[in-house]
């Protein structure tokens, strides 16, 4: 009986988080004092993301990744002699608020770069703003393929697998499991561009892989719906053998708990973003045997796309500082800042147009390994990770994780250059 | 059959919790001729209080939390009645709507301070968290708890209102307050009691659905819209009408998702419009003076 | 439309008082001063603040158009966001579907708003008082779920964002001047409407429906006309939202969005023409300012609304005229008379 999702958000909380590294006061500055003496000052980057509601975990840990990256940069003397500070604000998962945050950061705080929101619809609303003011934006969570195709702007970069790549990886994993067998499928996804785009990507991928399937039910509850009961009972009633669920964060946790009450996981295999947070929240109730996918799981460290210099140091620093292993969002946020910093150093300026041009086609060393931002659409060549939710705690990390990790290689899941251009229209 | 049962139980459980909230709203209107938009806040506070009191327990503590939350919110309701609502009884609808909307805003803000802006959840007690099978359908036991509560509330309210002197007093409070006061009834105290009872029902509904939803700010505004639709369809002030209307809204919602998901959420609004075009005072209501 | 109002209705309207020209000038002085002040501010402030001022100006029209029904017709509508949304979405969807140019959409939008107001008004006006308020609220939510779910047509939850206004309007000063011009003309028309015989009948209906009905006036037709005129100008205000934000999204039509012009009218004073204008400026600047410095915007607006409806139902305009009255009495050394009536008769500018 959900009517509206997020009306209270009118109270756009404007939270400013200053992250000038505390380390600056220590001996480090004294030693490197001469290096930055000539320029000095600070430069601001903006992070507008969702910090409230059921998906807030993504925004909060993503912001932690950004802040850690910035304090690491500042500890090494900043960029072009300037210290970096982060301003952040809650967009309440509302496009209009995200666009207004972006405008505020750029006009009032003079932000020289923006770091992306969680929600793709918010990202789409921010694109015209950053284009108008010529400021680069780095999407590290929002991943709708439209962001770099239909809504293409030279100022946008995506360091996260998009809504074609991610469901392709999941479909590939599923195809190996089911072979030629006929299966019935249901889908469940939040009702906005990311949800519809990911579901469409999954269905298309199954077709491309010649899986013998039939879609029996599709539900699109609102993002952050408090009550999904009507949608869930419709899905349960249709009795699908497999369900592709594109919810994430707290929404996926609620789905899993509710579906358990229907005994749903006994008969249906759910494919969903079972990443660190949902698995940790569900604990012993995590649905063993379900298929999880994740964009940068820390437990895949060592495999392709999770083997850059400094990754293990980052994981332990993050755990020491925030008390838990980093989410994929934190890892991707960290690498997004590294990407921007690389562009600034290469361009020798903070100017948005020059930084964007310097990054186009560049290969950037990050904690995830080298990321290539291909010139045609600025999509980074990142893999996607898939696995089966384990029935017992992982011996090393003492968390309920996956049995094994399958890495879908970028070359197998990315759109070709021509396909991307075609989507741009 | 299994498919029908799954949908039917879900619909009944949804209509049930909606009925309990809306019954509180319509009860207050029946006695005081006030539509209280802050009723949604009572629902949200009920839910948040359960998350605070029950924590992660899956046992007896949940039931204690349920009762305690309802009582605390009833007290909050009494405060709102004494502080605000009693001044708008008998005033223009606009004054009542704006004043109670202001209370909704104020309570929403206080709620943010108390519970933060994130979402919370609780577990159903183990005894009622499982699944039962009926004609091949797997169904949540907890839905039966909600349906049971709705039936209990409906029966108790019906008995109270039509078979006791209290019910007579509540009706007379609007129709003939002078007579009532001449008979020695303290109208103020009656209003206070009814308003607190209305808040209690909202909190009870908010509390009982916690294991099935994610508890988050914004619940107050979304539930008040649904419950307004229910009381308008049913006819303001009518408990029987509210019960029918909650079922109509529940069914409209379910049928909507089956017919065409993109239009599903509009069905209940069309239900309201059709009912009001045919009967501008709702199914069981009376034309306004 | 219907029979002209009976003579006693005209007489019931407020006597202009004294020499007509002096009265007219006195009435026009304050709004004129206000207009000049806004114009000067808009031409001198920093671009970011100009945008904020422009938004407040457009909201002033939304509030006055809503108050046409609320304060003058006695019709509490929580559904004017529907027409605001029609205005905004006509421009943004015209752009998205490449079917309307900006100027075509700007001209078409108010007529679409008025056209939609005919059937909706016919439905809503069958109900009275509280049922009317709740039915219009339901209409607003219906518009919201349609905007949210008809993704292919409306852009869905994502809304529509993009370069939908001509590039000259991206310069804050230009868009401010356009907004101010459109709002000024619209307000002048609304003023004329409310001070015509039609406006008098409308106020008559508000004050004593039965009596007006007994005089043979078609109340339903008058109320429907008010609904349609309001729909027209709410849609104009909606187009100006796009000029301000270059976007449209479902949240601009939901019931809380529909409540905002009502609150503005209540804050500013719904029994005067310019009260809602004052309310719009106070509300929007308080909102903008408070959000920067406190997270407790909802608390503040809640307390203010509560204080006004409980203590001063005639709003800021009412308070101001009461203060002015007291000042005039002191100046004229007239001993303080009885306090002003809670519902001041419709008068000139606040």
Q: What's the CATH C level of the largest domain in chain A?
A: Alpha Beta
Spatial separation of the terminal alpha carbons of chain A: 39 Å
Please give the number of β-strands of chain B. 2
Looking at the overall shape, the CATH architecture of the largest domain in chain A is 3-Layer(aba) Sandwich
Which strand order do you get reading across the main beta sheet of chain B? 1-2
CATH superfamily of the largest domain in chain A: Response regulator
The structural domain count of chain B equals: 1
Instruction: Provide the helix percentage of chain B.
Output: over 70%
| Beta-strand fraction estimate of chain B | under 5%
Mean pLDDT of chain B: 89
Order of helices and strands of chain B: HHHHEEHHHHHHHH
Tell me which protein chains meet in the greatest interface and how many residues each side has.
Answer: A-B, 46 and 54 residues
Plain-language structure description:
With 425 residues, chain A is of the alpha/beta class. Chain A has two domains: 7-161 and 305-372, Response regulator (Rossmann fold), CATH 3.40.50; 165-294 and 384-424, Response regulator (Rossmann fold). Chain A has 15 helices and 15 strands. Chain A has helices spanning 27-36, 56-75, 95-108, 120-133, 165-178, 193-208, 229-237, 249-261, 264-267, 276-282, 311-322, 328-347, 352-359, 410-413, 417-424, and strands at residues 42-49, 83-90, 113-115, 137-139, 156-158, 183-188, 213-219, 242-245, 269-272, 291-294, 363-366, 369-372, 384-393, 400-402, 406-408. In chain A, strands 6, 7, 8, 9, 10, 13, 14 and 15 form an eight-stranded mixed sheet that branches. A five-stranded parallel sheet of chain A has the order 2-1-3-4-5, sandwiched between helices. In chain A, strands 11-12 form a two-stranded antiparallel sheet. The longest helix of chain A has 20 residues, at 56-75. Chain B has 289 residues and is an all-alpha fold. Helix content of chain B is 74%, strand content 3%. Chain B contains twelve helices and two strands; from the N terminus they run H-H-H-H-E-E-H-H-H-H-H-H-H-H. Chain B has helices at residues 2-32, 39-54, 60-88, 93-115, 141-163, 165-175, 177-182, 187-208, 219-234, 239-259, 261-264, 267-278; strands spanning 131-134, 137-140. Chain B has a two-stranded antiparallel sheet with strand order 1-2. Chain C has one domain (7-252): Orthogonal Bundle (ABC transporter involved in vitamin B12 uptake, BtuC), CATH 1.10.3470. Chain C contains 15 helices and two strands. Chain C has helices at 7-12, 20-44, 47-70, 81-96, 102-124, 129-149, 151-154, 172-194, 197-207, 209-214, 219-245, 255-268, 275-293, 297-311, 315-331; strands at residues 160-161, 247-248. In chain C, helix 4 (81-96) packs across helix 11 (219-245) and helix 8 runs antiparallel to helix 11. Chain C starts with 6 loop residues before the first helix and ends in a 19-residue tail after the last helix. At the A-B interface, helix 7, helix 8 and helix 9 of A face helix 1, helix 4, strand 2, helix 9 and helix 10 of B.
């Amino acid at each position: 009986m959900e009517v509206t999702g997020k009306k209270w958000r009118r109270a756009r909380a404007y939270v400013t988080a200053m992250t000038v590294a505390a380390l600056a006061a220590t001996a480090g500055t004294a030693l490197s004092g001469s290096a930055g003496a000539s320029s000095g000052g600070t430069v601001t980057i903006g992070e507008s993301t969702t910090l409230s509601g059921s998906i807030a975990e993504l925004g909060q840990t993503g912001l932690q990744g950004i802040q850690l990256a910035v304090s690491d940069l500042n500890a090494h003397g900043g960029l072009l002699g300037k210290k970096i500070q982060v301003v952040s604000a809650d967009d309440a998962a509302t496009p209009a608020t995200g666009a207004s945050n972006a405008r505020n950061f750029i006009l009032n705080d003079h932000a020289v770069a923006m770091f992306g929101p969680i929600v793709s619809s918010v990202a789409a609303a921010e694109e015209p703003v950053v284009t108008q003011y010529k400021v680069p934006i780095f999407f590290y969570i929002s991943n709708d393929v439209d962001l770099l195709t239909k809504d293409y702007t030279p100022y946008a970069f995506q360091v996260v697998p998009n809504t074609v790549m991610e469901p392709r990886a999941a479909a590939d994993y599923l195809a190996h499991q089911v072979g030629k067998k006929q299966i019935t499928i249901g889908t469940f996804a939040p009702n906005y561009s990311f949800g519809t785009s990911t579901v469409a990507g999954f269905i298309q991928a199954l077709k491309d892989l010649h899986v013998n399937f039939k879609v029996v039910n599709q539900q699109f509850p609102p993002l952050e719906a408090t009550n999904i009961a009507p949608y869930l009972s419709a899905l349960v009633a249709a009795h699908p053998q497999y369900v592709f669920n594109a919810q994430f964060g707290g929404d996926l946790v609620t789905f899993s708990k509710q579906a358990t009450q229907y005994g749903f996981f006994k008969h249906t295999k759910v494919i969903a973003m079972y990443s660190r947070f949902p698995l940790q929240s569900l604990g012993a109730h995590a649905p063993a045997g379900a298929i999880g996918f994740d964009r940068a799981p820390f437990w895949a460290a060592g495999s392709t796309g999770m083997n850059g210099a400094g990754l293990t140091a980052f994981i332990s620093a993050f755990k020491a500082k925030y008390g838990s292993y980093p989410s994929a969002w934190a890892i991707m946020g960290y690498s997004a800042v590294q990407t921007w910093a690389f562009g600034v150093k290469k361009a020798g300026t903070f100017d948005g147009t020059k930084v964007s041009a310097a990054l186009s086609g560049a290969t950037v060393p990050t904690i995830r390994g080298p990321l290539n931002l291909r010139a045609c659409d600025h999509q980074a060549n990142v893999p996607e990770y898939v696995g089966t939710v384990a029935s017992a705690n992982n011996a090393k990390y003492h968390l309920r994780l996956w049995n094994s990790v399958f890495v879908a290689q970028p070359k197998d899941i990315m759109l070709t250059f021509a396909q991307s251009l075609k989507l741009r229209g | 059959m299994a498919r029908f049962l799954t949908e039917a139980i879900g619909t009944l459980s949804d209509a049930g919790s909606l009925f309990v909230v809306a019954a509180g709203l319509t009860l207050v209107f029946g006695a005081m001729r006030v539509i209280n938009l802050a009723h949604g806040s009572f629902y949200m506070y009920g839910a948040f209080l359960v998350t605070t009191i029950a924590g992660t327990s899956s046992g007896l503590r949940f039931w204690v939390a349920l009762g305690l939350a309802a009582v605390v919110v009833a007290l909050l309701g009494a405060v709102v009645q004494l502080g605000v609502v009693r001044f708008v009884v008998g005033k223009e609808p606009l004054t009542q709507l704006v004043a109670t909307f202001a209370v909704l805003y104020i309570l929403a803000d206080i709620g943010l301070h108390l519970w933060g802006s994130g979402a919370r959840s609780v577990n159903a007690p183990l005894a009622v968290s499982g699944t039962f099978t009926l004609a091949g359908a797997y169904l949540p036991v907890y839905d039966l708890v909600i349906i049971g509560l709705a039936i209990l509330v409906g029966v108790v309210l019906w008995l109270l209102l039509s078979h006791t002197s209290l019910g007579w007093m509540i009706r007379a409070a609007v129709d003939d307050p002078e007579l009532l006061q001449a008979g020695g009834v303290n109208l103020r105290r009656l209003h206070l009691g009814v308003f607190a009872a209305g808040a209690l029902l909202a909190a009870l509904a908010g509390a009982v659905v916690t294991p099935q939803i994610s508890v988050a700010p914004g619940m107050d505004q979304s539930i008040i819209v649904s419950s307004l639709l229910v009381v308008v369809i049913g006819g303001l002030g009518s408990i029987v009408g509210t019960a029918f209307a909650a079922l109509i809204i529940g069914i409209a919602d379910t049928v909507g998702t089956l017919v065409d998901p993109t239009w599903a959420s509009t069905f209940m609004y069309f239900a309201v419009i059709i009912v009001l075009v045919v009967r501008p005072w709702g199914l069981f209501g009376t034309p306004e003076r | 439309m219907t029979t002209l109002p009976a003579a006693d209705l005209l007489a019931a309207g407020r006597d202009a008082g004294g020499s007509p020209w002096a009265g007219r000038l006195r009435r026009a002085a304050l709004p004129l001063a206000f207009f000049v002040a806004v114009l000067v501010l808009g031409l001198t402030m920093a671009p970011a603040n100009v945008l904020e001022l422009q938004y407040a100006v457009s909201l002033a029209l939304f509030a006055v158009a809503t108050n046409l029904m609320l304060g003058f017709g006695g019709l509490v509508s929580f559904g004017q966001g529907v027409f605001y949304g029609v205005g905004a979405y006509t421009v943004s969807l015209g752009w998205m579907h490449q079917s309307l140019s900006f100027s075509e959409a700007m001209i078409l939008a108010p007529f679409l708003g008025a056209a939609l107001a005919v059937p909706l008004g016919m439905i809503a006006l069958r109900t009275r008082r509280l049922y009317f308020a709740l039915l219009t609220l339901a209409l607003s939510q219906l518009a919201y779920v349609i905007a949210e779910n008809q993704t292919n047509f409306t852009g869905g939850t994502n809304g529509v964002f993009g370069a939908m206004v001509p590039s000259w309007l991206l310069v804050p000063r230009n868009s401010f001047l356009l907004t101010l011009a459109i709002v000024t003309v619209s307000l002048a028309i609304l003023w004329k409407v409310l001070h015509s015989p039609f406006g008098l009948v409308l106020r008559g209906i508000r004050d004593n429906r039965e009596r007006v009905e007994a005089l043979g006036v078609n109340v339903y037709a008058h109320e429907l006309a008010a609904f349609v005129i309001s729909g027209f100008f709410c849609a104009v205000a909606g187009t100006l939202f796009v000029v301000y934000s270059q976007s449209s999204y479902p949240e601009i039509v939901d019931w809380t969005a529909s409540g905002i012009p009502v609150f503005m009218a209540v804050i500013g004073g719904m029994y005067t023409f310019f009260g809602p204008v004052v309310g719009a400026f106070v509300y929007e600047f308080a909102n903008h300012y408070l959000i920067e410095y406190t997270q407790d915007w909802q608390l503040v607006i809640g307390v203010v609304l509560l204080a006004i409806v409980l203590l001063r139902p005639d709003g800021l305009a009412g308070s101001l005229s009461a203060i002015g009255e007291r000042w005039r009495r002191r100046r004229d050394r007239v001993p303080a008379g009885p306090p002003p009536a809670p519902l001041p008769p419709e008068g000139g500018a606040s």
